[in-house]
Design brief:
The complex is a heterodimer of chains A (484) and B (380).
Chain A lengths: L4 H11 L4 E2 L2 H5 L15 E3 L4 H14 L3 E4 L16 E4 L6 E5 L4 E4 L5 H8 L4 E2 L12 H7 L6 H4 L6 E7 L5 E5 L10 H5 L8 E8 L1 E2 L3 E9 L2 H13 L6 E6 H11 L9 E9 L1 H17 L4 E4 L3 H12 L1 H4 L6 E4 L9 H15 L2 E7 L7 E5 L6 H17 L18 H4 L2 H14 L14 H4 L10 H4 L7
Parallel strand pairs in A: 2-4, 3-4
Antiparallel strand pairs in A: 1-2, 5-6, 6-10, 7-11, 8-9, 8-10, 12-14, 12-15, 13-14, 13-17, 16-18, 17-18
Chain B lengths: L2 E2 L5 E3 L4 H9 L5 E4 L16 E4 L6 E5 L4 E5 L4 H9 L3 E2 L13 H6 L7 H4 L6 E7 L5 E5 L11 H5 L8 E8 L1 E2 L3 E8 L2 H13 L6 E5 L2 E8 L1 H15 L3 E3 L2 H16 L6 E7 L5 H12 L2 E6 L4 E7 L3 H10 L3 E5 L17 H11 L15
Parallel strand pairs in B: 2-4, 3-4
Antiparallel strand pairs in B: 1-2, 5-6, 6-10, 7-11, 8-9, 8-10, 12-14, 12-15, 13-14, 13-17, 16-18, 16-19, 17-18
Chain lengths: 484, 380
């Protein structure tokens, strides 16, 4: 689709012709993010190099009423960076300077295209690191992390992106530039920085991000423990929490997820066991050692069948390689898969996993589970074969799992975001009024609705004309349109 | 719901969500939301209200899930009382502003973006609130977040009420994440001036000892370590070695007194003719800034969070405007706390760059600006 030659010329004037992509083959590489089931080719892709160019590009969009979608590394799993056909994608990949690392005040100032891991790399010489660690941290960008309020395995103890961002320089939908937050956690008036973080690119584009850095913990202890059942592993997590221990991370994998991970990276997990638990503690040596012994005792008490303590950083890295590769590794045991991201109160883990297993067996599909057990954030992987015509069944099951999490008192998404993927499920979690109020907040930032439209909040176009719980679009049911 | 019309201002005390919604839907005019009244004269001077909406009857625990470490409460619940209940389960809301001891409510602490020394590790209320029910100026009831700690679904409206000072919306219900009470807690005091304390704080922060609070006040640096009993003992010895001569491990009673004194400097009513200002600045700039406020404007009763960058000072009322300017000049934040009766000290310094967004949000959620009018004067 085209947005007109005059608009294209405006963008070229702002960015230089070489930084405006318009040829279809190159445009296609921006047609989706990590949620590859949804694809839209944008009219143009813009490649600004500076914050000023981002603002100037947005001003062109504002003047001409052109929708825009900001994009980092495109690793998002909810279709949050899905382009708009008659709009532009603004890629932040060329804004990738680490502007400042301040070891005294323990903070870093970053352009949005800096990768998550590069923040820690820049901080490491000072004995500091950036805490949120999504599994995609080698490639995902801090701008995307801010948009999605990304978490990661260690957010149980250390919190999410929102807890680590001090200040944001933001280009608003009218092209104006403001700063949200400031030099400390203190704020002048309502916490707009907190509203921005996790707004999925719908209220502006962050062009400069100040994050807190933490001191690298003195000690890290990691163990991998096998259990005869998910329930037993779940009880271990409960007992750890009841003991007043806040581990840095508690991760669980089931048989299928372990099989996939071992197939891919040979990380030393035990094939065939019903549940494996990764528990990591960090902090001052004395605290860590004391708690570690208690965690070991809790594992033994619940019939741990094998307990492997990482003896050195290499072994620790192997355990995490197994865990963090689980998503991609599932490709080894299934041609296609959907990832879900629902959250349940931790005490309902066993219940929800039982129901997911039953739903999977009813649908005739396998579901692998790898999840953040400490905070109840599930990542069920619905395995299917598109070539065998299983896509629709898998997508339905996947959506049902997310909605089941809401029924059990949880959330549709713990860290991947709502994006395009779950926008139509939002009425399961929030009332029409709740969503309308969120819509009013969005309008305050972006009255013209140009900033990443169609994401996060359900729209009639995406979800059918009638408000209320998500139903298949009537035209979809009739086979006139399809959800790609 | 009871109402009192014996004064020109009506006071409504809704006791549930429906009454809270009706209190706003069925009325017009300016509304002042009042919790325990511990921050009644903070920030901008409220314009005389037509209606006082008291949250005292919106009080109590709605659901405590110890195993999930979450609690849902009515916003009018005093945090002190909530923490007393939670302590029976070995848990707490890890929020420790000075005025908690004065009976401040959960809603009031959120609405004023308050925090105490523990913000070093636990952040402020924004970092602990995981869900909320708010009532807009027209009586619209909206929910945000949920009951799970990890949740990114939808806009986080709780962030909008954090620091809203009774504008934008009434906070009716709050879901909070909880932390375990530490098995042991030890405070070490190092006597010395602010500049020496800042140097010592730098060494502690570069060490792996992970203090949960690090505050200078009244000629001494207070450092607190939380953790397991034996481990905290060992860490305390390491801390004392690191700090060198002059570092003293306080007994439990001494530690309580020391922190009470710190809280008094932050939270006591100021003497006639003076006002309290809360200051935020990049931690490395804070000692110099506080020194400047002391030398040039006669600031006293200084507290300094040397890692959080948050401090408080008591100033002559007529120095407040100048203090806002000085703090702003180094990129800091300032807000007036405790305005003496009749004084006209400005609540805020220069407006933040996002003031247009703030106005737009206010216009969307409270188009007539009836909630908390004056709190952000002269910006809003």
């Amino acid at each position: 689709m085209s947005i007109g030659a005059a608009a294209a010329r405006d963008f070229e004037r702002v960015l230089g012709p070489e930084n405006v992509i318009s040829d279809p083959p190159r445009l296609r590489s921006y047609e989706c993010d990590g949620l590859t089931g949804y694809r839209v080719v944008p009219a143009l892709v813009l490649l600004p190099r500076t914050a000023e160019q981002v603002a100037a590009s947005v001003r062109v969009c504002a003047a001409r009423g052109i929708p825009f979608v900001a994009r980092g590394a495109g690793t998002g799993l909810s279709g949050g960076a899905l382009p708009v056909a008659d709009g532009v994608v603004i890629s932040l990949q060329r804004l990738r300077r680490v502007l400042e690392v301040d070891p005294v005040d323990r903070r870093a100032v970053l352009e949005p295209g800096v990768t998550n891991l590069d923040i820690t790399r820049a901080a490491a010489p000072y004995g500091l690191y950036y805490a949120p660690d999504p599994s995609s941290q080698q490639v995902c960008t801090i701008g995307g992390n801010v948009a999605e309020n990304s978490g990661g395995a260690h957010c149980l103890k250390y919190g999410f992106t929102t807890n680590h961002v001090l200040a944001l320089e933001v280009v608003l939908a009218d092209g104006s530039v403001v700063t949200l937050g400031g030099d400390t956690g203190e704020q002048l008036g309502p916490d707009l920085r907190g509203v921005f973080v996790g707004s999925e690119g719908t209220v502006g584009i962050a062009t400069k991000i100040t994050v807190r850095l933490l001191r690298t913990p003195e000690t890290v202890r990691t163990l991998l423990a096998d259990f005869g059942s998910i329930e037993a592993a779940g009880e271990v997590v409960s007992d750890i929490v009841a003991a007043g221990i806040v581990p840095a991370a508690v991760e669980m994998m089931d048989t299928l997820a372990i099989e996939a991970a071992e197939e891919a990276v040979h990380a030393g997990y035990t094939r065939g066991v019903p549940a494996a638990l990764v528990v990591e503690l960090d902090g001052p040596a004395e605290e860590c050692d004391e708690q570690f012994e208690r965690v070991r005792a809790i594992c033994d008490k619940h019939g741990c069948t094998r307990l492997h303590v990482a003896g050195d950083t290499e072994e620790r890295a192997a355990i995490w390689r197994g865990r963090k590769s689980a998503f991609a590794a599932v490709g080894r045991i299934s041609p296609d898969y959907f990832v879900q991201d629902g959250v349940v109160p931790r005490t309902r883990l066993a219940e929800v996993l039982g129901r997911i297993a039953a739903m999977g067996s009813d649908a005739g599909l396998r579901v692998a589970n790898v999840f953040h057990a400490g905070d109840g954030n599930l990542h069920p992987l619905v395995l299917y074969d598109a070539a065998a015509g299983e896509t629709e069944r898998a997508e339905t099951l996947s959506g049902q799992i997310a909605e089941l999490c809401v029924e059990l008192g949880g959330s549709l998404s713990g860290e991947h975001g709502i994006g395009t993927d779950k926008a139509c499920s939002m009425p399961k979690m929030f009332s029409e009024v709740d969503l309308a109020v969120m819509g009013r907040v969005r309008s305050a930032f972006d009255p013209a609705g140009l900033c990443n439209p169609g994401k996060l909040l359900p729209t009639p176009r995406l979800c059918g004309e009638r408000p209320g719980p998500f139903r298949v679009h009537p035209l979809e049911e009739a086979g006139v349109i399809e959800r790609l | 719901m009871t109402s009192h019309t014996d004064t020109p201002t009506t006071t409504l005390r809704p006791a549930d969500l429906a009454e809270a919604a009706a209190a706003l839907a069925d009325t017009t005019g300016r509304v002042l939301i009042r919790g325990a009244g511990t921050a009644a004269d903070w920030a901008g001077q409220p314009e005389p209200p037509d209606l006082v909406l008291a949250t005292a009857a919106l009080s109590g625990v709605r659901a405590h899930n110890p195993a999930d470490m979450t609690v849902e409460v009515w916003a009018g619940t005093p945090l002190r009382e909530l923490n007393r209940v939670l302590a029976e389960h070995g848990q707490r809301v890890a929020l420790d502003p000075a005025r908690v001891a004065l009976g401040a409510t959960v809603g009031g602490l959120v609405a004023t973006a308050d925090s105490g020394p523990g913000a070093l590790v636990f952040g402020s209320a924004r970092d602990l609130v995981i869900g909320a029910t708010v009532v807009l100026a027209d009586g619209t009831v909206a929910r945000t977040g949920g009951h799970v700690i990890k949740n990114v679904a939808g806009y986080d409206l709780a962030k909008l009420v954090h620091g809203c000072y009774g504008t934008l919306a009434l906070l009716a219900q709050v879901v909070l994440r909880l932390h375990p009470l530490p098995e042991a807690s030890v405070t070490v005091r190092l006597t010395g001036p602010l500049t020496d304390a800042a140097e010592a704080a730098g060494r502690v922060l570069a060490s792996p000892l992970e203090p949960v609070a690090l505050e200078w006040s009244d000629g001494g640096l207070l450092l607190r370590l939380d953790g397991g009993a034996a481990a905290v003992d060992a860490r305390t010895r390491r801390l004392a070695n690191l700090l060198g001569l002059g570092a003293v491990r306080l007994s439990a009673a001494e530690a309580d007194d020391a922190w009470d004194e710190h809280a008094a400097l932050v939270g006591d009513r100021p003497a006639t003719g003076t006002a309290v200002l809360r200051v935020g600045a990049r931690p490395s700039r804070l000692p110099g800034l506080l020194g400047e406020l002391t030398a040039e404007l006669g600031a006293s009763r200084v507290t300094a969070g040397l890692a959080t960058g948050v401090g408080t000072v008591t100033l002559p009322v007529d120095a407040v405007a100048r203090a806002h300017q000085l703090i702003h000049r180094v990129g800091g934040t300032s807000v007036l706390r405790a305005r003496p009766a009749g004084a006209t000290a400005p609540g805020w310094g220069p407006a933040p760059s996002a003031i247009a967004v703030l106005r737009a949000v206010r216009d969307e959620l409270d188009p007539s600006g009836r909630l908390g009018a004056g709190r952000f004067a002269p910006w809003l």
